[in-house]
Specification:
It is a multi-pass membrane protein. The chain is mainly α. It is built from 16 helices and 4 strands. The protein has a 4-stranded mixed β-sheet with strand order 1-2-4-3, with no helix packed on it. A hairpin with a 2-residue loop joins strand 1 and strand 2. The longest helix is centred in the N-terminal third of the chain and has 37 residues.
């Protein structure tokens, strides 16, 4: 079932791989843009997108609203229900703190030996060579493609729920029509708002939409939780199901905390880029985490083990409240999904467009139309083919985000410091991170594959969920 999804990721990544073979050399040759950073200068690779333009407050708000996206409507089911109260809260806090540290560490690697790395793959290629450049490229593309499919699916489900409220027969059209509509809306936004920096004009609207559906959701969850006297907080299933479910939940918790594209986001910041990125991360892991963790815990408290994988479908509130939550979540996701897809767009734009011309030149508009159409057309089709929400979250959280978030930053630190400079305990610390995250990546990926196999036996192609 999900093999076709992975095949699409592989196909697109292979296209990117061929582009990368030439782009690695092209980026190195084009890296001549001199800039000042603190006490010295550094070089920055060529890109079609803006860099050095945004304040840390802007990026911080972008991270807060980006991670408080429509995915939070599924986190109670994906993160809390398989773990229960004790392990659930412990894993939320531990993985959140670990993700904060790992991203704080990665932010400090943005400039090495006079080179500023605006792409994760450039950093890994510089430190470890061409092979790691391609591996990082491939892993990031899988992350972003699968994440975008999850956004498209969530948007389609929100539109279907709205349609059901206004349908006299309460038999809305198939989910696939709403997935197609969502893909088109996402495409249009990505076309006319092509870069991360260009999102600044949409942040206030996105923040207002986030507050709207979060407040409405919390109010109804509190109401339902108080009226629900038969809540069951036990973790159900066989011992094997409990174990695999727990590891799947750990992968989902990682997804809600990190993205695997921090250097790309950091590239938009003004100097000093390291301290500004760390300020933005502080905002995400305090104010931002308080909200998406709060929604996740409140949903589990209200419904217990029976919490739905899509909270709006379980709410007992009035019809207008359900419409409000679904509508605001859909509109907010238009902005959020763009943050997590921009690195794909940047790679394609840098290769396909004329860098000496503006983003809105006639030639570049035509090339961007082709690139955005390819990405969203393929993603919307595969999402319509396999509309299973948990698969998207668990798979890219386990297989990809553990290496990108934990393994690679520690590998870079060990490599650039060397044995003499790193010190014994520092080496032990980072090797412990590498080994632990590798083990977690393997076992959580096994849990995600098990979920995929289960859904393959239950659902058919183009299932109307």
């Amino acid at each position: 079932m999900k093999c076709a999804c992975v095949r699409e990721c592989v196909c697109i990544s292979l296209i990117a791989y061929q582009m990368a073979a030439s782009s690695l050399d092209a980026e190195a040759a084009a890296a001549g843009q001199q800039d000042k950073a603190g006490s010295g200068s550094y070089t920055t690779a060529a890109t079609a997108h803006q860099i050095d333009t945004d304040s840390w407050q802007q990026v911080g708000v972008l991270l807060v609203v980006g991670f408080n996206c429509a995915y939070v409507l599924s986190f109670s089911n994906l993160m809390m229900a398989p773990l229960g109260w004790g392990w659930g809260i412990a894993c939320l806090l531990f993985i959140g703190a670990a993700s904060w540290y790992a991203n704080w560490l990665l932010a400090g690697l943005h400039v090495i030996d006079g080179q500023r790395f605006i792409r994760y793959r450039d950093l890994m290629g510089f430190v470890f060579g061409r092979k790691m450049y391609y591996i990082t490229w491939f892993l990031q593309f899988i992350t972003l493609i699968l994440g975008n499919m999850g956004f498209i699916l969530l948007g389609g489900r929100a539109l279907k729920a709205i349609h059901a409220e206004f349908s006299s027969s309460h038999s809305p059209a198939r989910l696939q029509w709403f997935i197609a509509a969502t893909g088109f809306v996402y495409f249009a936004f990505a076309y006319f708002v092509p870069t991360i920096s260009a999102m600044r004009n949409w942040l206030a609207t996105s923040a207002a939409l986030t507050v709207a559906y979060d407040v409405a959701l919390i109010v109804i969850l509190i109401k339902d939780g108080k009226s629900n006297k038969q809540k069951d907080y036990n973790v159900h299933g066989t011992q094997a199901e409990k174990v695999f479910g727990a590891f799947g939940a750990i992968a989902a918790i990682l997804v809600c905390n990190t993205s695997g594209l921090l250097p790309e986001i950091q590239s938009t910041l003004r100097k000093p880029v390291v301290s500004n990125m760390r300020r933005a991360l502080l905002l995400q892991y305090t104010a931002g985490a308080a909200v998406y963790y709060g929604i996740s815990v409140a949903g589990y408290w209200a419904y217990g083990a029976a919490v739905s994988e899509y909270l709006p479908g379980q709410l007992s509130g009035p019809s207008w409240a359900t419409v409000l939550i679904n509508a605001t979540a859909f509109l907010q996701s238009i902005v959020s999904q763009h943050l997590f897809t921009v690195p794909i767009h940047e790679a394609l734009d840098t290769q396909m467009q004329r860098l000496e011309e503006g983003m809105f030149s006639r030639y570049n508009l035509g090339r961007r139309l082709l690139a955005r159409g390819l990405v969203f057309g393929a993603n919307a089709f595969v999402t319509a083919l396999f509309p299973f929400m948990g698969d998207f979250v668990n798979l890219f959280g386990s297989f990809v985000l553990f290496p990108l978030t934990f393994m690679f930053p520690s590998m870079v630190v060990l490599k650039i410091q060397g044995k003499d400079e790193a010190g014994r305990w520092n080496r032990i610390w980072h090797w412990s991170i590498i080994v632990a995250s590798s083990v977690l990546s393997v076992v959580t990926t096994a849990a995600a594959v098990r979920l995929i196999v289960h859904n393959a036996s239950v659902y058919h192609f183009f299932a109307d969920m």
